[in-house]
């Protein structure tokens, strides 16, 4: 008999007391104790033993580079969504810096359709703010919003919208349809030749420094602009203590500002750059230990709204080279939840309900994804992630399902493992392995 549903038996929903969760017809049909596998419509229900496991709403990533179209040697929508499912994600936002750039309705619809065909998670395209990411002319924001992809997040990520007039116009434009501009905060003139964080380590290594003020000055300007026009701005990959303080101040004013932090900025500091291993080269760069501590505190107290992976796959030839010419970026979809468990949960800074808030509820709300980030409750879409928090394993790049292997966590022991992922009740991962 074909499986018509799943009974997740004895899962700790949001880390709480064990509950049984029955999934039928793509939705949560029943939550309780002693739920029958034959309930709510009869047989054909597969039982999943979830004793000791934590059940979360499916994770949502606001910041994923799927590389397609144009750089399929690094990643495709198909391989990237498989990696996402393996990491517990049921939805990802695909950034616009593809070839061609996702600055028209045609390109965002292409990415959206590729996501629908992959079947492993929902793909919500992010539209470019400016034509060609060049920062001079607004892209077709309205056309992308009205397209089949229904774009609501716009970003020139990889480049900063450094022109204040262009940024103001973008904020005014997206306000009309409830959109948000996601800013890659980097004043370009302050980062010419930058190779790593500007500080003690860069001075000792003789590498060009990327100063904190290059990020903080843009964030300060943009929160003021957002307040002035009454629009929403989202700060991508916050990396400095000063940036956290600016976001905290803006939120205290009641301004419509949100922010994200990456797993690698939560765990790693610029000390690892002493190895000169290009796997640690990223934009924004890994910062000081003091910055790392501030980011953790900001995520814990809610100043930083969410964790976003900034999954940036690169083929081996772009990373297996000298530091100075290596590409910037790291893969992160498959290890994000484990890093958050190590840094935030096992340390007591967040509980599992707060992890669900930071990795599902808030990113879904920011991105406007109504079917994701929902409670594990009767009638809700069965976008779910089942996690084994007791698991411990060493990260092996060869074991990743992403097309690229540039993980900064290679050889590191991390806790937690995604046992199952359900996309509207259909398993994309079961028993820790991708389904067919």
Q: Could you tell me the strand content as a percent range?
A: 15-25%
Number of strands: 19
C-alpha end-to-end distance: 18 Å
What value does the Rg take, in angstroms?
Answer: 21 Å
The coarse overall form would be: globular
The largest pleated sheet is described as: 9 strands, mixed
Helix content: 25-40%
Unreliable sequence segments: none
What is the average of the pLDDT values? 96
Total of DSSP H or I helical runs spanning 4+ residues: 12
Helix/sheet category:
alpha/beta
Structure, described:
Strand 18 (426-430) and strand 19 form a beta hairpin. The strands form 4 sheets. Strands 1, 2, 3, 4, 5, 16, 17, 18 and 19 form a 9-stranded mixed beta sheet that branches. The chain has helices spanning 77-86, 105-118, 141-146, 164-175, 200-205, 212-229, 241-252, 263-267, 289-301, 316-319, 336-345, 352-367, and strands spanning 5-13, 18-24, 27-32, 45-49, 54-57, 59-64, 89-94, 122-125, 153-154, 180-183, 196-197, 209-210, 233-235, 257-261, 306-307, 384-394, 413-423, 426-430, 433-434. With 436 residues, it is an alpha/beta fold. It is 29% helix and 22% strand. The protein starts with a strand and ends with a strand.
């Amino acid at each position: 008999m074909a499986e018509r549903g799943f009974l997740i038996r004895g899962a700790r929903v949001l880390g709480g007391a064990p509950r049984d969760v029955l999934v039928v017809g793509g939705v949560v049909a029943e939550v309780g104790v002693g739920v029958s596998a034959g309930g709510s419509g009869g047989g054909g229900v597969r039982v999943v033993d979830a004793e000791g496991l934590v059940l979360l709403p499916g994770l949502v990533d606001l910041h994923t580079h799927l590389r397609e179209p144009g750089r399929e040697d690094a990643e495709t929508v198909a391989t990237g969504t498989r990696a996402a499912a393996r990491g517990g994600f049921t939805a990802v936002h695909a950034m616009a810096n593809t070839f061609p750039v996702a600055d028209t309705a045609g390109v965002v619809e292409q990415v959206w359709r590729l996501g629908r065909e992959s079947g492993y998670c929902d793909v919500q395209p992010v539209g470019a703010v400016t034509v060609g990411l060049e920062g001079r002319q607004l892209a077709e924001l309205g056309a992308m919003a009205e397209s089949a992809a229904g774009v609501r997040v716009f970003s020139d990520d990889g480049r900063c919208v450094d022109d204040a007039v262009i940024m103001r116009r973008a904020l005014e434009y997206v306000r009309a349809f409830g959109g948000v501009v996601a800013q890659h905060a980097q004043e370009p003139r302050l980062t010419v030749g930058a190779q790593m964080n500007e500080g003690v380590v860069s001075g000792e290594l003789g590498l060009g420094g990327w100063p904190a003020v290059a990020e903080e000055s843009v964030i300060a300007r943009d929160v003021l602009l957002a307040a002035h026009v009454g629009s929403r701005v989202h700060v991508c990959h916050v990396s400095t203590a000063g940036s956290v303080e600016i976001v905290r101040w803006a939120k205290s004013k009641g301004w419509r500002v949100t922010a994200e932090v990456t797993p690698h900025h939560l765990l790693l500091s610029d000390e690892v750059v002493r190895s000169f291993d290009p796997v640690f080269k990223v934009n924004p760069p890994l910062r000081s230990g003091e910055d790392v501590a501030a980011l953790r505190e900001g995520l814990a107290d809610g100043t930083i709204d969410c964790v976003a992976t900034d999954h940036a796959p690169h083929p081996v030839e772009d990373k297996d080279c000298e530091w100075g010419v290596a590409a910037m970026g790291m893969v992160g979809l498959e290890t994000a939840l484990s890093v958050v468990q190590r840094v935030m949960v096992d340390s007591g800074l967040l509980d599992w309900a707060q992890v669900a808030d930071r990795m599902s509820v808030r990113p879904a709300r920011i991105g406007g994804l109504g079917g994701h980030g929902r409670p594990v409750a009767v009638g809700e879409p069965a976008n779910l992630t089942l996690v084994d928090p007791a698991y411990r394993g060493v990260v092996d790049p060869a074991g990743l399902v992403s097309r690229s292997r540039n993980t900064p966590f290679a050889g590191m022991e991390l806790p937690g493992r995604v046992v199952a992922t359900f996309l509207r009740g259909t398993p994309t991962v079961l028993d820790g392995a991708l389904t067919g």
